[in-house]
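thread: overnight batch results

M.L. [08:02]
morning all. the overnight job finished for the chain we discussed friday. pasting input first so we're all looking at the same thing
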Amino acid sequence: MQKSVLIIFSILFSYSQIMAQTINAPKGRIAIVADGNSPDPDDLGGTTISLALLRSAGLEDRLVHYSHSCDLERDDRISKKAETERHHLMQIACDMTARRWGGFKHLTFFDAIWQKEETITDLCFAINASSKESPLWIIEAGEPDIIGMALQKTPKAKHKFVKVITHHPANDNAGDFYTWQQILDFGIEEVRIPDQNIKLKVPIAEWDWAKNHTDSRIQLIWTIGKLAEVDDVVRFQKGKWDCSDAGMILYWITGANKNNGLKKGTVDDVKNILLDYIKNNPEPSRGPKKKTKK
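M.L. [08:03]
and the structure it wrote out:
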């Protein structure tokens, strides 16, 4: 009897795990506004995992805006030289992940400081295209200022079709030009989930499966996250592999607030989605080049 109960429990647990990772995104499009140029380098891991998750879920075409380095005024805790490095690293995280995983040729990855007007214009375009049938979900993976500037330039009638997903007041309250209350005053919908650092900022050994994987796309995302771990601007990333902001993407692709999305996604949730995609979409073999006859 006890054995039967354990078997049933195991089956139910496995079933619940499968259901928890069901791709069931709500209707609409998605935009991501990240920092990465601020003292905390966690957006490196967050960026590469966010893009890989969207690709693995088959939802990459619904990403209509991605900008990084949205911390518009430099924090004294990071030097000018280190911040410049971060701009480049964030651009590499975007461009290289997009190229290696594929599916993002429709998108330009903007630097919110170095391409400020283009960034705001692009986000405005996404807001203006919003409707009841095609709402815009904005992932607040950094300060809210770029979001506020885009909302300021777009019609009030469109704002009711904009939803901003947030997971941490450190982002909400870090704006140099807009408070979080001012963002809410535009009439957008706040979609708040728990702090994703709890489950997705973990000891780096929990990502050994990626470090040691044979597929170079998986190795790539581990390498980009490792860059954040060895960064010397902050100390609280030492020994950690952090993709916390990607928890908002995990929440969205599994349903968000419309379809009971994962509010406390784990590394295993990320792993299962990515490895399922890798299994079904293996890297093309690259044999030696054929010698041309002279």
